[in-house]
Structure formats: C-alpha cells, structure tokens
Amino acid sequence: MDLLALSKLPVEGVTGFNRRQFLKLGADLAILYALSRAARAFGIIDSSKFVWAQIIYNGRWNTRPTGGRGILLEVAKRTSVDVSLEPKGISLTDPKLRDYPFLCISGDKEIPSFSKQESLALRAYLTSGGMLFADDTKGEANGAFSKKLKKALSPVFPEKEWKRLPQDHSVFRSFYLLDRFVGRTASMPYLEGLDHEDRTPVILSGNDLLGAWARDEFGTYEHRAAPGGEAQREMAIRMGINVVLYALTVNYKKDQVHQPFILQRKR
Amino acid sequence: MTESLVFLNTYSTYQLILIAVLFIAFLAFSLYGLRRVKSWKRKALLFSLRLLVAILCVFIALQPGIEKAKIITKKGRVAVLMDVSESMSLPAYPGKKPRIDAAREFLSGANDLIDSIKKDHDLEIYSFSDRAQASSLDSLASLKTLGKNTDIANSLRDVEKKSEQKLMGVVLLSDGNDHGDIGRAFKSLPAGSPLKFEFPAPIFTFGLADQKSFRDNSITEVRSAGFGFAKTPIEIIVAIRAQGYSTKLPVVLRESGEIIASKSLNITPDPRDYEVSLKFTPQRQGKTIYTVEIPVLADEAVPDNNSRSFVVNVIRDKTRILQIAGRPSWDERFLRQILKNDPGIDLVSFMILRTPQSLGTDIRGFPIPVEELSLIPFPTVDIFEKGLSQFDIVIFQNFDHRPYVPFQYLNFVKDYVEKGRAFVMIGGDQSFSAGGYGGTPIEEILPNRLGIEALSEGKSGWIEASGVPLKLTSAGKEHPIMKLDLDRKKNEKLWSSLPNALGFNRVQGVRANALVLAEGKGSTPIISVRETSKGRSLAIATDSLWKWAFEGDGERPYRTFWKNAISWLAKEPSFERTRLIVEKDSYQKNETIALEVLANDPFYKPVKGGLIQVELTSPSKKTMIVKAEEKKDGKYEAKIKLDEPGLYQAKVRMQGEGAQAAETAFVVEGRNLELEDLSINEELLRMLAEATGGKYMLIQDKKEKIAFPPPEKVRAAERERKPIWDSPWLYLPAVLLFCLEWFLRRRWSLP
To answer: Between chains, do A237 and B363 touch, taking CB under 8 Å as contact?
Structure first.
C-alpha cells in the first residue's frame, strides 16, 4: 500500500470537511499510524532516531552485546533524545553505513587492520560528520585493542595525532559536568581522541564503558564495576550519556550562553 | 632637376625573352664560326668585336632614352602642444608664476626654434587637456586653464590623426600631471623599467619649474574595501604626498562632520609619499560618505587637495539566527554545524536536552543535583519578551512549544515576522500539528494550514515513512532557495538524486499566497515558503534533510540549500525578486550612470513588458524619475548623467500585482583630478621623451638644441622623356665595329 497516496490536500479557501471525509481521514491516519508503528517494530523503516551502530569486523566485535542498548535506555530515560533501542551491527563497507552517523567499535583483543576500501569509507564517514566511539572492553589502559585500533586508524587519518581530551572538552559537559572518567574499570583516567576541524570524531575509552552499561533482559547489570561499585557505574553511565549528547550537539555547551552557568557550577 | 637613362620600349615579356635568345644564339654562332682560328688572341679579338656589336644592337633594340625629373622637398609637420588643464594654473617655482605662463614665456622666447621648424616643416599649434584642439601662437596667450582631466596619450593620438602629412616631431609643454593611459602606465611601472609608448615621431618634453621650491601636502588616495559590516571595525589606508614642510600633520576621518578617527603623521620637507592607516567602526547599515582631511598649512600651493571623500557600503554585520530545537537530533546537529561554521552567521542555539518527563535520579534512585548537570533553564521570557528583535531569523526545529512557551508568547513571534523578520519551522515528531501549532499565531505566519491534528494530542501529524522522494514543483524550479546548481538541468538532476526523506509532517494545505517548492508523493508539501506582510517564512515538513549532508557526494547541496534559504529569509539583495544594480559605487560628474533593474514576478519568472521607473533622490533631496527601458529576460535599464556631487538614493517604481521594492545608492564625486597630484612629473616627461626618440629638457636651459628630422626629398611625378635610340650616332659605332671585324677577317684570310 502506498502510504502517501492518502494525502489529497485541500488548499486554503476550501472550507471544512463533510462527515464522510472526516471519518475517512481519521481511518486513513489510524492505518498510517498503525503501519508506521508496525514497520518500525520490524525494523523496515529508517528514521532520524539515534541508533547504536556497532562495527562488525573479523574477530570479537560484539563482546558486550547489551551495552549499547543499556546506555540508550538511560539516554531515553534521562534526556530528550529520541533513540532506537535496537542496536545495529554494520560493516564499514555496507552501503547503508551512512544511515548511522554514530558508530561504536569495541573488543577485548587485537583487531584486524582495515582494508584500503574500509579505510577510505571510514575517513569519508568521519570527515562528513560521522562519529566513532571505541571501547576496550577488557578495561585496560593502552591494551591490545587500543594499540591495534590506533594502528588500524593511522591510514584513515595519517595526518592526525591521538591526544588526551582536556577537562574542558565538550564531551565532559555535554549533559553532565564530569571531572573524572571511569567505566567498568578505572584503569585509564582519561579519554583519547582524534580531532577534525572543530570536533573530535574519534573518541577512545580504555575502561570498558560498554561493560558498565550492559544489562540483561531483566534489567540486571551484567558486570561488576570496580573498584567503585555502583557509584562508579553511575559515573560510567553519565559518561555514556555525555558521549551520545556530544555526538548530537558537538560544541553546543561551549556556546557563550552556557559559560556563566557551567563556570559557576564547577567552582 | 635630375636626368637618368631609361628604356622606352614596350616589349612584352615574351619579346624580351626572344631578344635574349637571339643574343645568345648570335654569340654561339660566332664562337662556332671562329673554331678554325688557331691563334687564341685573334679569336678573342674577333669574338669581342662581335660581342660589342651584339650588345649595341640589343641596347638599340631596347629603345634607350633620357628621362628628366624634378626633385621636390616634402615638408613634414611639427606640432607644439600646450597643456591647458587646470593643474597648469598652479605655480611654477621660482617666482610662483602659473605653469602655463612659464610655458608661454618659453614659446615667446623660442623664436629660433619656431623659425627653424617653419624653415623645414609646417608648424601646428594645439592646446590640450584630454583632447587636442587646433590653436595658434597668438591665441595660446589668451587660453584659460579649464581642462579637468589631462590625457596626453589621447591628445597625441588626436594630433597624429589630424593630417596625413608626416609628423616629424612634437614639442610638449605640460606638467606631466597625466590621468590617462600614460599616467596609469607610469604609476604601475616596476622600478627601473622604461615607459612603453609607441608614437611615430619624437616627442620633446620640457620641465616647467624648479621643483625644490614647491610646497604642498595632498591626499592622493584613500584605499578601502568599499564595504564593511555594521559595528565591525574597518581599516582604511590614506596615501599622502607631502613636500616643503617639516611638522606633525594630523590626519582626521569624519562622518557627517564628526571626527571618528585620527592619527598624527611626521612629515619632512623632501618630497615623499606617506601612508596612514585609520580604523573606524560603522554604526549603521547603508552607503555612507566619509571624509579624510589634513590641515591646510601656510603657503600651500593648493588647499583643495587636503581632503578626500570615499564611500563605504555598510552591510548587515552578520545574519543573527535563533535556533530552538525540541531535542538533540541529527537534523539539529548537521544544521547547527553549518550555521555555526558560517562566518556570516551569528547563531544562538537552545536545545531542550531534558523534558519534564525525564528522570532526574541516578541508578540508585538518588536525585542528581543540578550542580552536576550542565543544563541551563530555557530562558523563555528573555527570548520571547526581550530578545526576539535581536535576531533576523528564528528557527523552531522539531520544537513542541507547549511545555516551555505560553500561548500568548507565540503572538510575539507572529508580530516579529509581520514586522519584517523571518521564521523557519523544521519538521519532526514534535513539530507542525504534532507540536501543537494548529490554530496558534504561528500557523498564521506559516505557508501551510495545519488543520485538525492541532486539536488532538500525540503525534498524529507526523508520519514516519522511509523513502519519500522530494520532487521540485514548477515554483521550486524558479525559486532562488532551490537553486543548488545555477544550471537549470543540472539543478533538477541534483534534486532528483538527493536522499529520500525518512518521514514528514502532514499538513492540511497551503495558503493562497504561499509557494510549495518541493513535495513528496501525493503532492504532500515538504518545502514551502510564504511572504507575510513584510516578513517571510519557510516550512520544511521533514526532519531528514541532514541526510543530504551525510550521504551522497558531499555536503555541498545541503550547505547550498541552507545558504540560499538564509539569504532569501534575510532578504539579501541578490535573492530578491526585484533588484536595482549600479556598476560602481561612485561616479564622476556627468559620467553616464546605468541603473539596471532585474524584475521577477511572485513566482520568480521574469516580468515582461513592465512599466518600470527609477526614482532618484539627489543630495539636495530633489526627486527625479527615469524610465527604465526593457532589455530582455526581465532586465531593464535606465541611464542618466548627474552633476550634483554627493550621495544619491535610487528606488525602483513598478506597477502591477506582486511588485517588489528595490533600492540602492551611489555617489557622484566632486573631486578634481587635476588638483590631487600637483607636483610636476618630470620623470614621466623624461620617460615619454625617451620612449619616442625625443629628449627631455628644462625650459631655462637655452643651450639645448632641438633637432627634427630634415624634410624628405622626392622626385616629382611629372617627367620628361627624350628618346636617343633613333640617333645615328648610336648606330655608327655598331657599323664601325662590324666593319673592323670584317676587315680583320679579310686581312687574316679568315672565312
């Protein structure tokens, strides 16, 4: 059924509907609404919602399968962001890659190098406005995953250098004001990133944030946050929310209008 | 009188060849006939005699004659050019007599030169400024220095074309204060390079004065970009030529008589060029006249060149945009990114990051203190009661106003648009009807009617549907917002290749004075515009234009679309239906000014056969009307010459429905080019003389001699010819030689 064929729009000057037209319009809208909900439930309609898209690579690409959904549940509960709770696995050469401006890559071991085609696709994706969030789910500072990821990204951005994100980076203030960074572990007290123009399209975490967010279908967190327990997990969730908000707002919190409030609260 | 030997024969080429063949045959037979002669001396003597006889015969056959012709001395012409431009009234030192008087004195004391010219050539006298006028030695004494523009090259060409008689030389009496081709070429010459000027005769130039005694300060140039932004500093460079003074010279910049910037300049007596930079901040938009001044010091040659006016077109500082987004989203993110990075836009964004329904506790159920959040309260009162007027464009992006903006505040937005500003509504599940705008003042300014969904709660007006292709409507093909490429076909192809929308806001229809520029399936309006009273609105009934930036071959279509949209909403002149264009910001007095009008109807199609006039308001507030003649494709042109110096305002007057106002301004300058650069340009005069094979001299140097090429000598066309071939004395040697040859053969018993 052609969902849009229902629209036969009167221009201004045509006054009102008769009862039959009114009922027909109501029925049309009800059908449209039901179809759109059903279509979304089956994942057949793309939308502008925030989707947690995970890069598929040859290896252990999905070590925290419920982590993305876990953080998006919190994003949906705590913020106004409209999210899709169904994570999406996608390869870098998938033609639908550009449907998802946010990508996550995670793992607990070395990852394979990107092919030339993958490197080109990823560079175009990141310079066009996409964002890549990388998480070492082993929770190690500068572990095997992080080292290999940096090596894999060197042909993507050969001219750029990794650097620690400073405390006044927008990712630490995009929703919550954060002055420390923890995940399931607290082995790496900083985030690293690659800058492009006025934003940081690649952010790397070594504290297994996905592990801190992962919840089973009953809502129980799957991994213990150590050494800080639930307080540490809360901070990891706040970091996750900030990462999502940073992807969607970039440097919004650096606008002049926010500065007096932020400075006052950070005193 | 000269005499010369000529041949009078009228033989054809064939006959001449025949004579040559007979000549050679005769010689050949002679040689053959002498083969038995054994003595080579005798053989040579006999052959020589025969050869001489043959030559004489051929000579006679060619009919020799004597031609007598007269030699005529052909005189050339020598032109004396006297500069009568205004700068020639300036003093020539020492003695402070006017330069033209110095030139006149030189001529009256140059009888030897005049006599020598007259002896060999015709003397022509001209006066010149920008063109040469024939004159005489007597009338030069009474000519006034009224020329407003010295153009030596133009005047020399006039003299060159005056007659076909050969020009043998030019005596140029000028101060070299040239504003034509030569002056421009001289100013742009790299150091050490010669001046290039092609002229068929040598030019002799004369220095009219002793430069050392000259005293004057002048503003020779003001360099500015010609435009600037309101409330943004502008820098100008003032070029000053100073000579004869040692002092601190104040340089001041005035607007409407008020000093807005000043600097002090140390000058020394040596002739020198200085540059001073001045900074000022224009406060209001539009074309404004500014004046740079330096004080007139005692004993200055010309006080008039101590000030100079210039025009700056002050355009809007930046387009100020208020973006209110109902939630962080990709659509908001990509739009914010291009607006924020545009140096011509000042963007203020507010995003609703948390709704009243959002959870304010952590995972343990503890409330999260506000100090741990970076959120700020939505400044409803500040924005809608006080701040709206600071913005040129307000964008509601997927923003449901109900939790944050009281209904009555929406009236402020409506008033804001009706007073001449712009409003944009971008779609999504919280926008249009789904944002509760049906039946509100906002609906009254939108291009679309929102209808009954406004009465119901929820998201009934938002349809999620992947694959909604956008199609340009006929109005969309013409509208400047939609021109992603200036080529019509490429533009339509580009639009058909854009990513599909992922959803749309359903509207009930479009208002009668709105235009739907792009639609989805079933004629669903997706992009619509409307001009309401003085203001404008743009409705984008989808939340997925961001895909244009992120998919495909790059963000150019997305960036171009929004740049076009912002320009149209902010009423940038180049995006208006009616435009009034002048080629330059400033004109000289009585220069032809062409005012071009581009006229389009409300559907952005060219107006054909329109009655279009341009109304001009002079600096003294007099109004005049000029009819614009139709050219083609909606282009009209009005031409006028003006002589009152100052700022003119021009407005388009059109008749008919949908007529749109357009205006511009320009300046008619009253400055006198002749009095800007007062020094005698000896270097230019020297280079001009060298470039043409002439010489540069000082008028007081009497020893210098001017040597023009001598007159040409040519033979007269009338000639007298006398034949000599029929003289018996010519035949006698031939007969004698022949007899001698016969006698010798007989004597030597030869055959």
So the answer is: yes
ipTM (interface pTM): 0.84
Bridge partners, B519 (sequence order): B471, B525
Sign of the torsion formed by the C-alpha atoms of A201, A207, A213 and A215: positive
pLDDT at B479 over 90: yes
- Asked if the model's pLDDT at residue A185 lies above 70, the reply is yes
Q: Report residue A241 CA to chain centroid gap.
A: 9
Where exactly are the structural domains of chain B?
2-70+719-747, 76-212+679-710, 216-315, 319-354+376-569, 575-673
Q: How many domains does chain A have?
A: 2
Eight-class DSSP state of B661: -
Q: Nearest C-alpha of chain B: how many angstroms from A40?
A: 9
Domain hosting A7: range is 3-41
For B220-277, how does the pLDDT look when each residue is reduced to its tens digit (9 = 90+)?
888 887 778 777 889 999 999 898 899 999 999 998 789 999 999 999 988 888 999 9
Contact A5 B543 (CB under 8 A): no
Runs of H (alpha helix) within B219-375 = 330-340
CA nearest neighbour of B314 among B358, B283, B359: B283
Question: pLDDT class for B209, splitting at 50, 70, 90?
Answer: low
Interface of B with A in 44-103 (CB under 8 A): none
b/e B487-508 (16+ beta carbons within 10 angstroms → b): eeeebbebbeebbbbbbbbbbb
Q: What are phi and psi of B122, to 5 degrees?
A: -85, 135
| Domain covering B76-212+679-710, topology | Rossmann fold (3.40.50)
CB B460 to CB A46 under 8 A?
Answer: no
Alpha helix segments (H runs only) across B597-727: 682-691
Strand partners of residue B153: none
Report the chain B residue with the minimal C-alpha distance to residue A178: B372
Confidence bin at A33 (pLDDT 50/70/90):
very low
**Each residue's pLDDT tens digit, B499-545:** 988 889 988 889 878 999 999 988 889 999 998 878 999 999 999 99
CA gap B6, B505 in Å, rounded: 106
**Rounded distance between C-alpha atoms, residue B593 and residue B637, angstroms:** 10
Expressed in angstroms, the distance from the first to the final Cα of chain A is 59
For B547-568, what is each residue's pLDDT tens digit? Answer: 999 986 677 899 999 999 999 9
> What is the pLDDT at residue A7?
30
* CA-based R_g, chain B, Å: 45
Those of residues 24-43 in A touching chain B at CB distance below 8 A are: 25, 29, 32-33, 36, 39-40
Cα–Cα distance for residue pair A59/A122, rounded to 1 Å: 18
Q: In angstroms, how far is CA B209 from the centroid of its own chain?
A: 36
- pLDDT (0 to 100) of residue A44: 40
Exposed e or buried b for every residue in B30-69, given b needs 16+ CB within 10 A? beeebeebeeeeebebbbebbebbbebbeebbbbbbebeb
Residue A196 in contact with partner chain B when CB distance is under 8 A = no
Q: Write down the H helix ranges in B141-242.
A: 152-162, 181-187
Q: Which residue of B has its CA nearest to A43?
A: B466
Please give the CATH topology (third level) of the domain spanning B319-354+376-569. Rossmann fold (3.40.50)
- Tell if the CB–CB gap between A130 and B543 is shorter than 8 Å: no
Count of residues making up chain A: 267
Please say whether the beta carbons of B529 and B545 come within 8 A.
no
Contact B448, B454 (CB under 8 A): no
- Contact between chains at B555 and A14 (C-beta distance less than 8 A): no
- B575-673 belongs to which homologous superfamily? Macroglobulin (MG2) domain (2.60.40.1930)
CATH of the domain at A252: 3.40.50.12140
Structure token digits, residue A262: 């932020």
